[in-house]
Amino acid sequence: MPVNPVQIISAVRSRLARLAALGTIVYFVVPAATAILLAVFLPAIGEVSWERFGYVLDPAVAEATRAGLACVGVATMLGAAVAAWRSYRKANDFIAAAERLDERLHAHEQIVTLATLAGPETPEPLKEHRSPLFPLLWRNVMNVLSGVNPRDEFRLDVRKPLKRSSLYAAGLAVVLGFAMLALVEPPTPLQKAAMRLNQIADEIEHNATGPGDLALARAVRKAAQDLVNPNLPPKEKLKRLETAMREVQKEEQQKSTAGNSGGSKSAGAGGATSTNAAGNRKGEGQGQGPGQGKGPGKSGKASGNGGKEKGGQKESIKLQNELSKAEALVQTQEESQKKSGTKPSPEEKTGNAPMPGNNPNLQGGQKKNGKGEIPKPSEQGEKKSPGSAARGQSAKKSSTSLGNTHLGEFPAPVRYQRFYKPGEKGAALDIKDARYVTFRIPPATPSGGEGKTVIDTGRPTATTPYTNAPLAQARENLPPEERQLVPPRYRDLIR
Amino acid sequence: MGAAPQQSPDQRVAEFRRVFGRAVNEVERVIVGHKEVVQKVLTALFCGGHVLIEGVPGLGKTLMVKTVSEVLGLSFKRIQFTPDLMPADIVGTQVLTEVNGRREFVFKPGPIFAHVVLGDEINRATPKTQSAVLEAMEERQVTVFGQTYRLDPPYIVLATQNPIELEGTYPLPEAQMDRFLFKLIMGPPKPDELREILHRTTGSTSYRVQSIFDPGSAPKKIEELKALVREVMVSEPVERYIISIITACTPNTQGASPEISQYLRFGPSPRGAQALIMAGKVNALLDGRVSVSYEDVDDALLPALRHRLLRNFQAEADNISAENLLEQVRKRLKRPSA
């Protein structure tokens, strides 16, 4: 069956366009997948990395990071779709496909020449005025293209795009790692308490014997989550903790009821009497003691149950302790907030750092714009201060100001000047222990004539701050040239 | 599309290859070595161009040109260019002759009226005389006393130039250099080639060549083959490649490299691109193809463009040749498919 070169080139064009689109998607898919996976597994990554070293990531920051990563992933995928479409459009070129085919089959540009002259986009006049040698070209190209399968000739090579996109993904992971280093911080007491509660919840879940334990673990986790929720007010947090505490107590009660029934069974078998309280707290002892005499089989079972129960009790006690500690912490926080009033809590960290004064000549307490007032004692303080009553009386008696006696006057502010210390503003010029200083001989001062004074504006002036620190004493054992504080290059001149 | 072909395309291509191959073989019976130069001379003939051959004396330049004309069965004339050569000595002049009892001016054609014209040491003639060849080379006609005379096709001027003894010579102006399709350099023969030359030229055996065409049919046959060359197809990417070469060789253009802008005053004219395409077509036919490839163009790059790059003083001072620059361009340029 004769081969139609134009059909084969068209098939190659479609194949190349699809491959280009797929290659572009592969190029983008690794960074996108990395971003999404990092977003999903960020808590797990935190557990095995910074949380092991006692650091925590603020939940709000963690959520923002995860959301950001998810957005990056989704945006990358959208970008991949757009880029793939553009690649498809670009690669869907008949002449370019012929060139690729030509290069692959080493056809010496015969295929591309045929594509130029017989392609679907070739104008009709050009087709009509083809060279008389065109049939020979067609036949040559047919021979070259016989047995060519576009699927076999052009395959998707994912290694190169994967290799390059892996670099980008690695870069993303490294950036995230550095960002986490900057964002993680030592936990606050509340966060520590929440972490401990979570650990206990894990233990409960791990040793769970029924749906009640699992529900308790969930409740504890919820309490831990609420504890560090910045949107919850302390009162609400306390409420939630109390709810969790009640859950724990309820669960404990249920367990004790179950323990009592088990304990009474074994006690019955052993013939001993026991109380509810003993069944609740000392199930192990009850099961072992009386059961050993008459029912060894049952006593073993009772002993096993008692072991688990003991563990559960320990966890329960621990949990109640932790919840109580958390409540205490929340209460402390609430009280400190009440005390500080409008002051922000230390956790909020919204205060501004004190700024250094720019003008040392300003009066104490005076604002930069000069409208500050001198601090005065409060009215209460004034009343309490000795002689305040007398002052009040005298003020009532005379309508003059308080300055009628020296006792009632405050010292007037005095303008004072202060010079900068060395190093206070910029680097200090440290010329201690200097053996000589460099100086420049100024040019001759222009003379005004007839004794007229002329201001020399061109004279050298110091441009760097300096202090009048004394120069080091010349050492006696130095040669005269060294002792004389003259730059070496001027010594010959002086001599 | 030229003369109506009697043969099929296959047969015409095969005929071209046969003629070309035979011509090369016949010339090689006399000329030892320089196969590439012989091939390029024949290429220029089938392209319809002219060739400037540069080489020291005694390498067989004149003999080669003469042999080529003999092999192809074309008329051959040789002009020895000297400083006192006048244009009339080349193109011919009107001579007062008595015809049927009447005296009238009759045109006496000069040596330029031949199929193959050898301009020996063309740089020894004055520019005035050199320019007399210009019209003949480009227009294939000469005008004497207002009368135009056409030159019979095929027509090829093969000029030789001596790179030494430049005292008292007149280097060809750029306009005239541009009219040559190729500039070929003949180097010294290799030792075994020299030995063969000695055997052939100092022995008693004389080597004669045979014309590959029947007497009188050569011009027509060659014109048919020239028409075949023009029918060879060129793809759009190859055309773009040639254009990019020309652009890259033109200083101070977007595609020019810093070296080109530094060392060249002027780049090749459009004639350079035409030369590349035509030479590429002949190369394609010799390879049995009817379309030009990148290799065909690359093969013609040096002979077609080396004399079209006008170097500046800095290039001469730094000993940068046109060949160096063309090699740089070839390495730097990426083919469209790459």
Q: Do you know the CATH architecture of the largest domain in chain B? A: 3-Layer(aba) Sandwich
Radius of gyration of chain A: 45 Å
**Helix/strand order of chain A, N-terminal first:** HHHHHHHHHHHHHHHHHH
Number of domains of chain B: 2
Strand content of chain A: under 5%
Oligomeric category? heterodimer
Number of strands of chain B: 11
What average pLDDT do the residues of chain B reach? 86
How many E-type strands of chain A?
A: 0
Shape of chain A: flat
Distance linking N and C termini of chain B: 33 Å
* Computed structural class of chain A: mainly alpha
Averaged pLDDT of chain A: 71
β-sheet strand percentage of chain B: 15-25%
- Looking at this structure, what is the CATH superfamily of the largest domain in chain B? P-loop containing nucleotide triphosphate hydrolases
- Gap from first CA to last CA of chain A: 110 Å
Strand/helix succession of chain B: HHEHEHEEEHEEEHEHHHHEHHHEHH
Written account of the structure:
The complex is a heterodimer of chains A (495) and B (338). By secondary structure, chain A is mostly helical. Among the domains of chain A are: 5-183, no CATH class; 189-269 and 303-339. In chain A, 62% of the residues lie in helices and 0% in strands. In chain A, α4 (110-118) crosses α6, α9 (189-206) runs antiparallel to α14 (296-340) and α11 (234-270) runs antiparallel to α14 (296-340). The radius of gyration of chain A is 45 Å and the shape is flat. The model of chain B is unreliable at 1-5 (pLDDT under 50). Chain B has a five-stranded parallel beta sheet. Chain B has a two-stranded antiparallel sheet with strand order 3-4. A two-stranded antiparallel ribbon of chain B has the order 6-7. In chain B, α2 packs across α11. Chain B is globular. In chain B, a hairpin with a 2-residue loop joins β3 (92-99) and β4 (102-109). Chain B has two domains: 9-82 and 114-226, 3-Layer(aba) Sandwich (Rossmann fold), CATH 3.40.50; 233-332, Helicase, Ruva Protein, domain 3. With 338 residues, chain B is of the alpha/beta class. Chain B has 15 helices and eleven strands.
